[in-house]
Amino acid sequence: MINKCKTLIILVICASFVLSGCTNSANTIGLNQVQIQSNKKQEDISKILKEFLQPGAEFITLKKEDHKESIFVEDIDQDGKQEAFVLYRDTKENKQVHLLVLKEEGEKWKILSDTATGFNTLDYFKLKDLEGNNNKELILGVSAGDSEVKKELFIYEWHKSNLVKTVNRSYEGIDIADYNGDKKPDLLIVDGERNKLQTAQLFSYEKGQLKVLSSVELNPDSFHENIVFGKLADGKKALYIDGGLGAHSMLTEIVAYNNGKLIKVGKEDDGTLFKAYPLYSRDINNDGVVEVGGMYITKGFEDAAMAEIPFIYTYSDYRIDGSKQIIEERYTDNCKKFYITIPPKLYGKVTVKKLDNGVSLISNLDEKTLFKVKWINKESYVASNTKLKETKDTVFYTDTKEDLSIPNDNFHLLQDEF
């Protein structure tokens, strides 16, 4: 049975040099692990934070970033003196996100402001020169909770030793990059109201305001579950939106900039973009190109109930013209949490045979067994069989002695992939 799994991870970083009440020690980092430009600055900022932040405060970081950082130090106004921006949560104050601003003054740091955002989850943070005048704006995205689709975007400019808010608007997803090739960063923003109007819009930032450069409508009925910014196979920057439709179907909408405007890549009736169950877009082979997840019904199950169909999953690269290429096929068992990658020469040629506590992949052409896996409790496993993988309680094995067309190394646990 297809299992719809959503993994929502909140990474809350506890500052070990500040806190007395933090228990999430697995995610604890100290100031010496935060990238600040010199040890002297580390010591100075650390001293001020010890005095200012109350016990129980937590540093917070962006959950989507591999590099975890809570303190950002830059000279954003090019006056020769650096500013420090600290993201933290005060657990005694409804756990809302705070933005603390410090300014370098001689050999010391001075706290200029401490802004409570009114929101509990950090979604986006960037210091970026949006206008091309060498002064950087601060872009902050927050939400009421990690599962909230709607978020709030703030843009600040630096004026007279303080941050001044210039933009405050809702959004679902945001990316800042040069989409139109004018050597200036653009803001690609997904927003709207479900069942009415949903859009992806490209903006420039000019004189404290967002100016619309191009807009494209999205499916109004889609409930956006996964938004990924990446590249197409031909190198074009693109936005991938995986949205739920109806009871269990999913539509992937790809937005890119081409010939002076935003467009949607491919057609909604494309068998990969529209799929029977959720399968999220991601860079499955770590080559910088985002693959779109799709699936097809295996031979012999055309008339089976949807919940009983063992789908073969596909991951495909798209180009700006809507053409696509399959990068990987796999059989995935979401209940037992494993998958088997299929060699390219067998793409579209594999079906599934269910066994007692096992499954075989079978050739569509001659019905030969291509791969077989069984599972059993650890205490019942017989060592004479070939062990493929094991978990805490289960051994996955094959009792086939001859070499098959799909090697044993093509068997993987889902937990190893993530």
TrEMBL record:
<keyword id="KW-0732">Signal</keyword>
<dbReference type="InterPro" id="IPR028994">
    <property type="entry name" value="Integrin_alpha_N"/>
</dbReference>
<feature type="signal peptide">
    <location>
        <begin position="1"/>
        <end position="25"/>
    </location>
</feature>
<protein>
    <recommendedName>
        <fullName>VCBS repeat-containing protein</fullName>
    </recommendedName>
</protein>
